[in-house]
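Intended use. Records such as the Esterase-like activity of phytase family protein entry shown here are meant for training and evaluating sequence-to-structure methods. They are not intended to support clinical decisions.
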Amino acid sequence: MLPKRTHAALAALAVTAGALAGAGVAHAGHGKGADHGRHRPAAFERTATYPVFQNRPAGEDAASETVAEISATSEDGRTLVYTDAVARRIGFLDISDPDRPEGLGTLSLASLGDAEDEPTSVTVVGSHVLVVVNTSASYTEPSGRLDVISLRTRTRVASHDLGGQPDSIALSEDKRYAAIAIENERDEEAAPAGGEEGDLPQAPAGFVRIVDLKGSSPAGWDLRKVALTKADGSALPVLAAAGIAGPTDPEPEYVSVNGRGQLAVTLQENNGVVLVDLPTGRITKAFTAGTASVDGIDTVEDGVIDQTGSITDVPREPDAVGWIDDRYLATANEGDWKGGTRGWSVFDSRTGKVVWDAGNTFEHIAARHGLLPEDRAENKGTEPEGLAIAAYDGVRYAFVGSERGNFVAVYDISRPTRPVFEQVLPTTNGPEGLLPIPSRGLLAVSSEEDDAEAGVRASVSLFRLGRGTPAQPSLVSDEDSAGAPIGWGALGALSAVPGRAHELYTVTDAAYATTRILTIDTKREPAVVKRELTVKDADGAPAGYDAEGIFARPQGGFWLAVEGRTGAGNRLVRLDRSGVTRQVVPLPADVAAHLGSQGFEGVTATTDARGREIVWATLQREVRTDPAGVVRLGRYDVRAGTWSWYGYRLGTTTTAGDWIGLSEITVVGDRLAVIERDKLSGPAAKVKRIYTVALPRTAAPAGTLPVLPKRLAHDVLPDLRATKGWTQEKLEGLTVAGDGRVHAVTDNDGLNDSTGETVFLDLGSSRRMFGRG
C-alpha cells in the first residue's frame, strides 16, 4: 500500500496596490483590540471539540491511532461522516446538538475490500455516502474504487472501479455530477530517467473521473474519464502551453465545482490549475499558479521568531481549491516538493491571473496569535493546506486552514479581489478537512494528527456563527517596531507589572533560543502582547534561559526561575530593568544532586519595610531524597544569601504515566498561591487547581522540610473546559494584576506536541478567590 497521504514589512507580492490592504492582519480579533473600521457583529464561536478516539469500535485500545481527515454531512446537516485513513474506516457523528456531538460508530473498509484499503475523501448525495478508496498495491500499480454506502443502514449499495489512486471528490451544486481527482501520486523515493529522487514524471499519469449521478440507481451510475495526457502518455497541448511543470505527469490533487458546472482541479506538484466542463468532460482552460516572492517572514529554523527573511520566485503549488463565485477561485498554497508560498491566492478563471495574494499576511496572522511554527520556518512555514468557501446570512466567507499552525483563518470575501481577514479559529493538530454547514450556521474542522502518547488526539471541532466577541483567541499581539506582529508562544509564567494596574509580564521558555519578556495589556479584549524585551546574559548578549517563572521587582528588574536539564542547571537569575543578567543564584548542591530535569517552575518575592527581599521559588516535582509526594518550596534570603525549605504535599493520580506537580507560585497577601496540575490533556485532564499555603515569615530550621497545609482556592479545570477546545495540559502561569484580577495562562510549548492554542484566563477578583484584594 502507499503510505498515508500527508497533504502536506507587508508582502512583496501584492498583485495590485490594494491587494494586501484588504487582508486586515493588523486587526487582532472582534473585541476592543480590533477595529476593522466597520461594524461586524457576526463571528464564529467554538461549540465543541470531539476526540474521534471516543468513536472507536468496542474493544479497541483508546491509544490506537485514529484520525479525522475529510468530512461531509447528511443533507440536513445533522450527521457528519469523516474519513479515517489510518484506521481504514469512515466514522459517523451525530451533530444535531453542536454543543454535544455524539459518536455513532464506524464502518471498516476491511469489510468491503482489503484490510489495507484507505479512504481519501467523502461526500454525501441524498441518502448515500460516496467514499473514494485508495486500493493501490504500489506507486506503479495505482488503483481505487468509489463505494456508495447507505447513510441509514451503512451497507454498501454499489461500488465502482476508478482505474487509479483517488485523492479528492466534489459535487456539483445541482447534485448531477461528482468529480474525482485520480492523482496516481509519485514515489518520493524514486527517480525518473535523467531526474533526481522524487522528480516528475513518474507513470502512470493521473486524470479526472466524472460520475453522472442522476437517472439511475447508484449501481447504474456512469463514470467518464477526463484524460490529462494524450493516449500515448505525451502532454496535452493545453497543459504544455500553460506552462505546467510536468504535463506528462499531472497528479491532480483537489477538485471544486462552481455554479455553472465548471470543475477546477489543482495539479499541486505541477503548480497548475485545470478547468473542466462537467457536462461535456472537455478541458476548457489550464494555467500555471505562478510563483511568488514574499518578504517579512521567518525562514530560518534557529529557535528565534525573526520575521525579516524572504523567499524568492517560489512556486505556489496549490493544494485545496474553491470557487468564490462563477468567475473567481481561490487556492491554498501549501506547496509540496519545490514550493509553497505560505499563503493563499485568488485567481480570475477567465485569464488565469492572480488578482489577490496573501503574501506574508497569513504567516503574520499565525505570529500574532502565537501559532507560528518556528521549527517549520525553512520548510513551508504554516503550510496553508485546506480551503473552503461558503455563504452565511448573505456574507461569503473563505476558510483557510494551517496544517502546521493548527488554526483556520476566516475571511470576508464579499469582494473576491479584496478579502478581509476576520478571525482565527484555533483547532487541534493538523486541520485537514474544512466543512462549512451554512444551513445550520456551522463550520466543522476535522484534524488528522493523532498521538496518544504525546496527548495530541485527532478531533472534529465545531464552530457556530453568532454575535458578539468569541472567547478564543484570548491573547494576540501588537506590531513590533518594524511593523510585523510580535511573535510569541511558550508562555509559562506571569507577574504583575508594578504600578500598572492592567499590565502583566510573561516570559518565553526553552521552546525558543532567545528568552524574551513580554508585556500583556489585560484591559483590551482579547488581551494583547504590546511590548517585548530581550533577556541578555552578563555580557549583554541575548540569553537562552529555560525561564519557567518571572517576578517583576518593585525596586526594578526581574527574577527569573530557570529550569535546568539536570538538577545543577536550576538557578534563580536576577535581571536589571533592561533585561541584563546581574545575579545568578544556583540551586544548592545538596538539593540539585537529587533532582532530575523537572526543577524550578515559578518564582515570586516579598520585600519588607526595611528592604529585606525574600525570594520564593517552587520545584515542580519531588527531590529524590524527600518524602514521596512532597515537593519543595524554596525560601531564598537575598541579603543573607541563604536557602531554607518548606514542603508542599501533592495530590495523587491513578492514571498510568501521569504525575502531579507544581507549575507556578505567587504571593497573595499573607499566603502563597500555587498551581498544582497533572500532565494530562483533553478529556483525560483532571487536576488543574490553584491552592494556597500560609506565607512563612521566618526561615525553616536547617535540614528540615516542614509541610505547609494547603487550601483549595480555585479549580481551573471548568474554566479550561469552558473554551470548548482541547483542554490544555500546561496550566503554568498565575498572578494577581494591580487591579486585583487573577490571571492564568497555558504554555503552548511553541506548538511542539501541543495544539498550540494559548488560553489566557481572567479568573475573577483576588478578594473573591483568596479572601482579600
